[in-house]
Sequence to fold (193 residues):
Amino acid sequence: MLKLLIAMTLLLGTGSLLLNMLPVAHKSGSRRQPIFSLVSRAHATEPGKTATPTGEEKVKKTKDEWKRSLTAEQYNVTRCGGTEAPFSGKYYKHKEAGIYTCVGCDAELFDSGTKYESGSGWPSYWQPVDKYAVREINDISYGMVRTEIVCSRCEAHLGHVFKDGPKPTGLRYCINSASLGFVPENEENQQEK
Ligand SMILES: [Zn+2]
Fold:
């Protein structure tokens, strides 16, 4: 009888141990939360990371490799933060339906449906195709406080975003044509022209 009692106690003990594991596992699951948010914040804000916020691998090239794959103007704008002359870019008056892509890595950036005539002299859009397609950086150059926009995948300088755009966002993504490629709507599954 005593042996049976000891066996019962042991069994109950094991049972409660097992039960104890559940809240422990749950606790460690909830502890993971801050780590997740740290990771996503790092992806969303830090250059030099290997993945975009959506988990895509970033495109990285050396200066020489970028120079070889871009025209002089594309290199100056996308890799040196240059700005093309207003009213001069090839997409300023472009009205075809399709997707504007990053000239550096072909990432989809802006839909023609969000392009509008801002009068600024640069292609203007009221939102990117995806909030993670572009990354915002505070820019205090030239004595101005502006928000620079770069490609999330290859860090190409694209332009700036201003808060004087049309509805529904009220934003104006002011983008250099030299930073962009274009895939017409009927060729979106084919190679970019
Ligand atoms: Zn890019």
